Amino acid sequence: MKKLPQYSIPFRGLKDGLHHLTFQVDINFFQHFEEAYLQQGNIALQVELDKRPNLLVLDIDFSGTVKTICDLCCEEGDLPIDGTERLLVKLTENPGDEDQVIYLMPGETELNLARHFYEFIALSVPIRKVPCADEDNEPTCDSNALDLIKNDTEKTEETINPVWAELEKLKNK
User: Fold this and answer.
1) CA 84, CA 102: separation in Å to the nearest integer?
2) What's the average model confidence in pLDDT over 150-154?
3) Of the four, 4, 41, 50, 80, which is 20 to 30 A from 119 by CA?
């Protein structure tokens, strides 16, 4: 991944307290990640940065869509995603081994969030991807594709493997 300077926060010059930042992620962002799971998307990110002496607390809210293939009908579509994440950054010369904490040397002046943004977005994509769903999460896929899937499932259920048929006889005794 190449460093994306537009996703850096120059925290050294900021006063202690709350700061609100916004970022936008689009296709150009995803192209910087080699062998990326996601290739396209349009996501808005709002970052609330609470700067304290030797500590940065970032609360990140994001929402938008990513381009993905429907698991039911194999059509490409925009899958809505959203999420909230928290990132802790400690400025210290003695890094610890705590999970979910980023350690920076006290002389650092900026924090690049591009990799973290990508990970947050990728982890918010559900296992079952149905971008062509309505508000109630019911699939609105192409009816021809759904009929093919339904017919194939019915044929599979009708064709019983002879091994399982013999086991079914034993079960019934």
Assistant:
1) 18
2) 59
3) 50
